[in-house]
Amino acid sequence: MAYAYDVEILHLLVSPAHAYFGRAKDGPADVATTDADQAQVVAGKGISGDRFFGKAAHMDAAVTLFAVESLEAIAAELGTGRFDPLLTRRNVILRGAELPPLLGRDFVLESADARVEFHGGRQAHPCAWMDTVLAPGAHQAMRGRGGLRCRPLSSGTLHRGPAVLISPVPLDPARAAVPSLLRPGRLP
Q1: Residue 79 and residue 144: Cα distance in Å, rounded?
Q2: Sign (positive/negative) of CA torsion 128, 130, 133, 134?
Q3: Is residue 105 a contact partner of residue 169, using CB atoms and an 8 Å limit?
Q4: For 62-100, what is the HEC assignment?
Q5: Number of other CB atoms surrounding residue 74 within 10 Å
Q6: Residues 72-90: pLDDT tens digits?
Q7: Burial of 186 by CB count in 10 Å (0-12 exposed, 13-18 middle, 19+ buried)?
Q8: Residue 179 phi/psi, 5° resolution?
């Protein structure tokens, strides 16, 4: 059985280089980052043109999905204004998607006329840079809701705008901002 959920792809981040490395006091690297209207996903490799594309160490986590509701909840908890979702450096920023139940599962994102299959590999843990680029306390607040690192199982193009998330398990979009420390099961 499959469950379909209307979601929205708000942002598609494609960056050829890492912006957050070294010491935060030195500031992020000045790298080109694109908030693309569409992103070409290649099975087993990631997003074409992105820093994780084709990197052996990142095959199971080449594309990161992130629920914007998590970022909105973090901003509310920290009492700050709205954060720029691109500062999180997640590739696919969604609205309306509960991601933790997809950990260890195959699922599909359909946008425009394209269909891309993913495997939810592991949680995307935040780095200490979040305290610098978002706000003090953001690193801790983002734990358990930093997104889902995925392996693309099929090739296709993701487009910004309305999309459908097809899940093998029921999801609750109202829980998109709720922290979770789920771990993938060891059984198929």
Answers
A1: 19
A2: negative
A3: yes
A4: CEEEEEHHHHHHHHHHHCCCCCCHHHHCCCEEEECCCCH
A5: 26
A6: 999 999 999 999 898 888 8
A7: exposed
A8: -65, 145
By three-state DSSP, how is residue 8 classified? strand
Residue 46: φ, ψ to 5°: 120, -150
Residues 140, 154: Cα–Cα separation, whole Å: 34
Q: pLDDT tens for residues 123-134?
A: 988 877 788 888
CA atoms within 13 A on the CB side of 131: 10
- Locate 34 and state its tokens: 């694109």
Rounded CA gap, 143 and 102, in Å? 17
Place of tokens 């990142």: 58
Considering only the C-alpha atoms of the chain, give the largest distance between any 2 of them, rounded to a whole number of Å: 50
Q: Which residues contact 140 (CB under 8 A, 6 or more apart)?
A: none
Instruction: Please check whether residue 65 is in contact with residue 57, taking contact to mean a CB–CB distance below 8 angstroms.
Output: no
